[in-house]
Design goal:
The protein is α/β, with parallel strands linked by helices. It has one domain (about 5-209): 2-Layer Sandwich (Nucleotidyltransferase, domain 5), CATH 3.30.420. It is about 40% helix and about 20% strand. It has helices at about 10-15, 30-40, 80-85, 90-95, 105-115, 130-135, 140-150, 170-195, 200-209; strands at about 5, 25-30, 45-55, 65-70, 75-80, 100-105, 125, 195-200. The strands form 2 sheets. Strands 2-5-4-3-6-7 form a 6-stranded mixed β-sheet, with helices on both faces. The chain has a two-stranded parallel sheet with strand order 1-8. A hairpin with a 3-residue loop joins strand 4 (about 65-70) and strand 5. Helix 7 (about 140-150) crosses helix 8. It is globular. The relative contact order is 0.23.
Length: about 210
């Protein structure tokens, strides 16, 4: 069983090499692609999930979720909700408790998604912020949790980009896919291999030895 620190600093994180999404990316922007993608996801047992919203730089305005990313180990679907909306097929997928859906800070995602679908009733979701605490991990950000487990960093350079752009750039697609994939990879690693997470004081002593 591997031994990890329970927390890492921003400085430590900066020293890690960048992580990249290893699979295929499918941009879903037509009703036909939406149906095909959801049919594929309905056959899975576990996926990673995240959302992106166009940033707001003025007070009093709130944008709806523009992108929903759902990833398996091999492929990530980028659902352009600003074009397609939150369809009945997607709502049924969210309600299917037999499929594990791994995310982070899911309450925020659900709150934002209900602006697109008032009947949203998510089932089968696991929030990494809660799950990771069970192992003694003190950090709660996706970047830091991923860094603790895999010693790689996830770039946030595209976070404030325009997620409602006519065409998503390659950088945006890779960023979005990696976030969803990282959620799945973190859960799978902890579920399959676990780990020993040392408090800060103990991890320092271990390094000195």
């Amino acid at each position: 069983m591997n031994t990890y620190k329970c927390s890492i600093s921003k400085e430590e994180l900066k020293e890690f090499p960048h992580e990249f999404f290893p699979g295929s990316i499918v941009v879903v922007d037509t009703p036909e692609l939406m149906k095909d993608a959801v049919n594929f996801l309905n056959q899975q047992t576990i996926v990673g999930l995240d959302t992106e919203t166009k940033p707001v730089f003025s007070k009093g305005r709130i944008n709806k979720v523009a992108l929903l990313q759902i990833s398996t180990e091999d492929v990530c679907f980028l659902f352009r909700l600003n074009i397609l909306g939150f369809t009945e097929e997607m709502n049924a997928f969210f309600k299917d408790g037999s499929i594990k859906k791994i995310g982070l800070s899911l309450k925020d995602d659900f709150l934002m998604l209900r602006a697109r679908c008032s009947s949203l009733a998510p089932a089968g979701f696991i929030d990494l912020q809660d799950y990771c605490k069970e192992f003694g991990i003190e950090d709660s950000s996706l970047q830091k949790i991923y860094g603790i487990l895999f010693e790689k960093k996830i770039s946030k350079s595209q976070r404030l980009s325009n997620w409602e752009a006519t065409q998503l750039t390659t950088a945006q697609q890779n960023y979005a896919a990696l976030d969803a994939y990282a959620c799945l990879k973190i859960y799978s690693e902890l579920k399959q291999n676990g780990g020993i997470f040392l408090p800060k004081e103990e991890s320092v002593q271990t390094e000195e030895l």
